Amino acid sequence: MADKLKIDIAGAGIFGLWQALTLARAGHRVRLFEASAEPFANAQSRLAGAMLAPWCEAEAAEPIVRDAGIACLPMWLDAFPGIVTAGTLVVAQSRDLSELKRFARLAPGHIAVDGARIDEIEPDLAGRFRSGLLFAEEAHMRTPAALAALLESAKQAGAEVWLGESWQAGGPETDFTIDCRGLGAREALPTLRGVRGERLLVRARDVSLKRPVRLLHPRFPLYIVPWGDGVHLVGATVIESEDPSPMTVRSALELLGMAYALTPAFGEAEILETSAGVRPAFPDNVPRVVVQGRTIHVNGAYRHGFLLGPAMARIVADVVAIGRSDWEHAAGLMA
Ligand SMILES: Cc1cc2nc3c(=O)[nH]c(=O)nc-3n(C[C@H](O)[C@H](O)[C@H](O)COP(=O)(O)OP(=O)(O)OC[C@H]3O[C@@H](n4cnc5c(N)ncnc54)[C@H](O)[C@@H]3O)c2cc1C
Q: Is the pTM for the entire model greater than 0.85?
């Protein structure tokens, strides 16, 4: 290993946590600074659906997101025992079957499933859909549990965690600073923009999906992620706006209407929480490692912070150790 380096990390969202864990495990002296006193209180990461769905995301994302995302799956399985590897089911109502065909064309890595198979693998959807796509290799997790586990693992690996401590540029000497402040890093990354997202948490006594289910629709595609005990995350809007204010009635109607269309059993669910946030994104919606001397920015997570967190950490670990990354996916994720 290269010499032990002094590395400060700013921001304990999904990117900062993966950096802290990976760099501490590599033997460096890591300090992780998070401005909020309560972990994740101001992190956009807390709102994420946290699906490890590289094949499904290929429908709308650049190929590097799929390729690097596939490479990240084993890294997640090593890092967090709470990963559920039950795949993703994609369905559409009869009138939207053209959406299913389009999705199948753009997102390889699935097997087509008929109504009988859907009824077997998702009994709560029995009789509701006649065809779908099963992405068997995909995975998901409970977002709060994953964030808490990564923070704990980073501490156990030797990272010092400073909560309620705002990192400031030009602080004490370190070998490297890894800037993972999300939208807080705008002044350093002028092309960064915010993309609003909204999602709900519901508890349905009579629905217990086994895996994330995506319901395709020309205007409002929906995903529902099961968290166990009847709790499901229903998301998410994608709106070109930086407005962080609470969920609108329109979005609530759309998301809940789609959940009800998936199965009317969601009609009896309790709404536990509605939330809105703003995703940090670069113009092409691909996350990037941006090396500026001894400061390394890791940002632009968009919808892929959980999927690509391990990849960004792997690249930064290479850069601090040997000044570059030769990993096969590095070029596509570096500015
Ligand atoms: C509704 C919704 C659904 C989403 N779904 C998904 C999904 O399914 N999968 C996915 O991967 N992503 C999803 N996202 C996006 C994802 O949540 C974000 O893109 C991603 O989590 C950003 O991670 P980050 O670590 O870069 O930033 P953040 O999680 O925002 O973390 C940045 C941290 O830096 C801290 N900070 C800021 N300034 C300072 C400072 N000066 N000193 C110290 N700390 C500082 C902040 O307090 C914050 O905790 C979703 C987002 C929304 C809103």
A: yes
